[in-house]
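WARN retry 2 of 3 for item q-0093 after timeout on previous attempt; input resubmitted unchanged.
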Amino acid sequence: MKKGLSRRIIIFVSLVLFGALTTGFLISQDTRDFRIAKNLDIFFTMFRELNTFYVDDIDPDKLVKAGIDKMLSTLDPYTVYYPEEESDEFTFMTTGKYGGIGSMVRGNGDYVIISEVYKGFPADKAGIKTGDLLKKVDGVSLKGSG
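OK item q-0093 returned
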C-alpha cells in the first residue's frame, strides 16, 4: 500500500514540476516576443517620424542598413547583413568560383559542372543551363579539372 502511494506522489510531483517548467518557459517566451514586438514598433515609429519631420530628406535604404549594421556590430564580427543587391557577390564568396562566362561553377569528379547561370551574361545567351557538364573549352578537354 505504501509503495503505491509513494509512486503516486512521485508521479504527481513530476507532473507538477513539468507543468511549472513548461509554464515558466511559455511565459518567458511570451515576454520575449512582447519585448521584440515593442522594440520593433519603437523603431518603426522613430523611422516614420524621421521620414516625416526631419529637416532634410533621408535615404530610407541607407538609414535602415546603418541601423542593421550597428545592431549586428553588437554581436560578433562574423554576423553581417548582405542586402539583396549584394546576394550574387555573397553567393560567389561562399559557394564556388566565378566561371568568367556569367556562371558559377564547381568541381564534379573529373569535370566542371555549372551550378548557377546569371541572366543576360554570355552563358545564359549561349543556352547553358544549371547542371550542364563542361567537357571541352575551345577544343581543350577539361577532364581532370573538376
